[in-house]
Each structure stands twice: as C-alpha cells, then as structure tokens.
Batch of 2 targets.
Target 1
Amino acid sequence: MKKEVKALKMTFKNGETWTIDKEFIGDLWIKHISKSFGRIGNSELQEIFPCESLKIEIFPEADEVNSSDINLGGLEMGMFDRAVKYPDIEKMDILYRDSENSDSVEIMAQETVYFPYEAIDSDRIDNAYQSSFVSQDNVLYIVIDKEKTVKDIYKDKF
C-alpha cells in the first residue's frame, strides 16, 4: 500500500478539531519536522514530531466544520473566524489514505506534528507564536513561527 495525504486535522488547545481536505489547501510549509520519543508522566511511550514552524494558506471552501470534528464554537462563528480570534492551534494530524485504491476514503495512517508554543498569558491557551488573517478574497493565512508573523510571510496578501 502507498499512502497519500488526504487531509490535515488541526487540534486546538480546548480540544476542538478542524479537518481540512487537501484540495482546500494552497501554500503549505512545515519546517524542520524532527522525531522524538518519550512519555509524559504515566502515559504511553510515543513518538512525537515537533516542527520549527508552519505556514499555510486555506481556501474559502474549508471554512466549515465537518460532522466528524469536535466542535465547541466553530459552528457559530465559522472556522476562519475561530482561527483568527483564538490563536490556539496546538498540533496537526497529517491524515493518509491508500493511494492504490482510488475509491478509498478511510484513513490508513496518520502522523501528529506539534507546533512551537509559548503562552500569551496565565490561562496558557493562546499561542504567542501563532498569527493569522483572512484576506479580502476570503482566504485564511496562518503562521506559527517563533520569529516571523503572518504579515512577514504573506505581506503581499494584505
């Protein structure tokens, strides 16, 4: 079996999820994914894939909540508004399907990538490294980076 990326599933700090099919993703760069192995407390031993940064362009068709996603507010405001208002994307699952079976919609594998994170305040929810905006043509741009903001990377889209 060969695997092919089907979608990206963002997980927010409050547990909400947002699955974005690959056809609704434009520019995408996940910088320096490394592999770690460990456990926190008494949890299971696991592989962890932290990255250095993320930049992503998401088309208007993705501004919705899928029925399989966990939703605690995105339905009311839309996922674009939610991502801009609450900068708390914690991690992302890269979802794979079997590319040899063109009818397959089932996820055959996934890898979880963790983003750089620094709390903005004592609530420890919002991430100081995440910035985003929605362009005039309703495209969402998100950057999670310790040194650059969405304005630095996508200045021509403002």
Note: The longest strand covers residues 3-12.
Target 2
Amino acid sequence: MMKLLIALALIALCHAGPLENSALSRLQRPFIHKVVIRSDNFLLFEFEWTPIESGIWTDPVIGYKMRVWEVPDAPSTRAQKYTMSDGKYTVLVEHQEKTEESMDDTKNLDNNILLEEILTPGDLPRAAFFNVRIGVNFEIRVSAYTRTHQSSYSSFTRMRVLPNKPEETLDSRSITITKD
C-alpha cells in the first residue's frame, strides 16, 4: 500500500511540471535594444531585442511575441526627438529604464488598444511593424515563450511620428537608435 502511494505521488509530481515560482520556470524578459524607423515608400518600425535562453533544454524558447498598442498619452518630455533626412517627419522615442517601476507592470495597458501581435521564431529576435500612422502614439513590448511558459513583457518603447517642417536632417532615409 505504501509503495502504491509513493508511486502515485511521483506520478503526480511528474505531471505537475515545474512550479511557477521556481527559478527554472522563469524566463528573463527581452530588452529592446535597437529601433530603426524607415521612410522609403511608407513608414515602418523595426525592433531588435536581446535573445532569451530558457535554461531548460527540454523546454527551449520557441518564439517571441511583440505586441503593439495604441496609447492615449503621448511620449513624455523625456522622449528623444529625431528628424528624418527628407525632412518630412519627426519621431519621438521614449524607452522605459530598467530601474523604473516594475518592467512587468502591465496595469497601465488597460486604456491602450492592442493593434497587433507579431510572432517570430525563437531564433529571430527582431520584428517589423508596418501599420505606422502619423500622430498616433505606439507602445511596443516583447515577451519570449516556450511550450510551457511565457516571460514577462519587456520594458516599453513608445514612439510617435509627427509631420515636420524641413529643419536639420540626417544623412539617410532611416533612423537607427541603439540602447546600451
């Protein structure tokens, strides 16, 4: 009887999988470290983030989810301002710092409208967003996922494209922003 109880307990533990709070079951959140804004025939944003390893060979990272929200509030006064070379657009970009309140804080997303969820494979830590509209505030976050777990979302990157009067310009039709 005792052997049967031990066997049932072991079977139950095997099927339960890792505990949610265990160190092995937690994936690191990606960090968006490069943003490219292009204006050839249309506007698009390209994002690149740090690749994530699950640390569990039986449950590797199989993909990333990049979510793009329309947000009602504009980027703050901390936003960096960039001007496209053709002088048509100014782009405001704001990144949430790692030291700010929890990067997994998604409670502020309640007022935001989810526009798109872009899925990429686990070996491709980058994606492009093509539905860029002038004057709209966008918030972008990325999450890694395995077969059994999903990481917290990355810190936000907020962007807004504004029409521009010709001023100082850059040397190309794109802007690349790299974060350390």
Note: Helices lie at 2-16.
